[in-house]
Amino acid sequence: MPNTVEMLAALAAFPTISADSNEALIRFAAQAITQAGGRIENLAGSVKGKFNLMASFGPVAGAGIVLSGHSDVVPVAGQNWHSAPFSLTEREGRLHARGASDMKGFLAAMLTAAARCEVAKLTRPLHLIFSYDEEIGCVGVRDLLARLAAERFVAQGVIIGEPTEGRVITGHKGKIAGCLCCRGRAAHSANPALGCNAIMLAADMLSEMRALQTELMQGPRDDAYPFPFTSLHAGRIKGGVALNIVPDACEIEFELRHLAGTDTDALLARLRAAGARIGAASNGGTVTLEVTNHYPGLETPRGAAITQIALAAAGRDETGKIGFGTEAGLFAESLGLETVICGPGSIDRAHKADEYVTRDELAACDAFLDRIIATLT
User: Fold this and answer.
1) Pick the catalytic residue: 23, 133, 134, 208?
2) Can 134 be counted among the known catalytic residues?
3) What domains can be seen in the chain, in order of their start residue?
């Protein structure tokens, strides 16, 4: 079995951008796991060419530990890389490649840790999970989780290896993404009263969103997050065909990143009601809200068994929370499993040109996973 740096080089060479297939990487990982003595379940996803992979080591029964990560990466188009993004390149102790931090470094460490463990000494199972299409809204792992829920899968806990600089993370916000779809009526701009301007409807909705965000900032807060409130964000807007045409369509793509305990149904109802009011006051326009993606937040107690195991293995006393979303909340919600996040690298390096992880970070992750696995013997 290669060491973790060598394994990362092999995994980084697979260009598993979310738009493309991850099958070649999954087949490679399955072969490495089989050689290490693991049992393989290769699970085709609901998208052609996409696969989840679940592997287990040790006893068939018992509440073991799950190590999990996503196999997909974000695109590199338009980024100014100083080396080939799908070839691991070392410069000044930094290992550069797309996915080095997010999160093939952890996948590589999972594979080498499983190979190092003495399978015969495991008294509870070790499970490894590779998912697909996390980067486009935690989509692919849902196929696997639905199957595991139907099989009444049990485990002591789950560790998701997103890049946290080795910190043990017990919380992140949930996310709802959607479209505020504004529809009007086209007309010549020389006589705009004959039409209904969808861009103006969108402008009114943006005012409603701004007012709601101000209200949210007077409500519940969690200072563990860089932005301690539930946030409502307009990320993209598109509408109009030509300057001299009253636009009949305009769409606002938005996201709601919410704290634990937030009544998101009530917030969406507020936006829908605002849209209905704005549409009714217009010259025949409508504003509708469509949810395009959502995933739950994470809120794992410090006293949870998996939290304590991870803190001991990481040699740390404090837990933290992160601003970005992960699959962790889905594991907790779908399977009822206590879940934490801990992995090598930094999210601040992810999704950028020259993304990297360091040798020292990978070595620390190796030691962390060895201690995690030791709790199963």
Assistant:
1) 134
2) yes
3) 4-172+297-374 (3.40.630.10), 174-295 (3.30.70.360)
